[in-house]
Give the backbone structure.
Amino acid sequence: MTADAPPGGRGLKPFAEALSGILRRTDGALAAAVVASDGMVVHAEGNTGSPDLSLLTAHCTDLLRRSSSAGEECGLGATAELIQKTGSNALLVRAVNDQYCLMLLLDTGGLVGRGRWELRKAAGSLRMELE
């Protein structure tokens, strides 16, 4: 699942490599995606069909945007990370910059701490690709 390639010049290969690495190194990982601030999926890896990843990313980017706005209004700064746990999944969202974030969907037994670490590393390495 991909949208138009973002600025950066090397196409989608760096995103595919980063996301597949996150999935490989994180127990319980189901899907990972690079998402634009408007909720559009730039690139996704893993089981991207269930749940509806496009719908999920649209809602999550809205949550990230609202949380960042509230944090800035209160003098706390922009939100860097969100974690949402449900009865069946955990969803991790990590801001890369103002325009892009990374999302990781885990099953109930997924390792949230490892997922957070992997998203943090990937955000740092992909930041230049997304400028």
In short: The longest helix spans residues 53-73. The two ends are 21 Å apart (CA to CA).
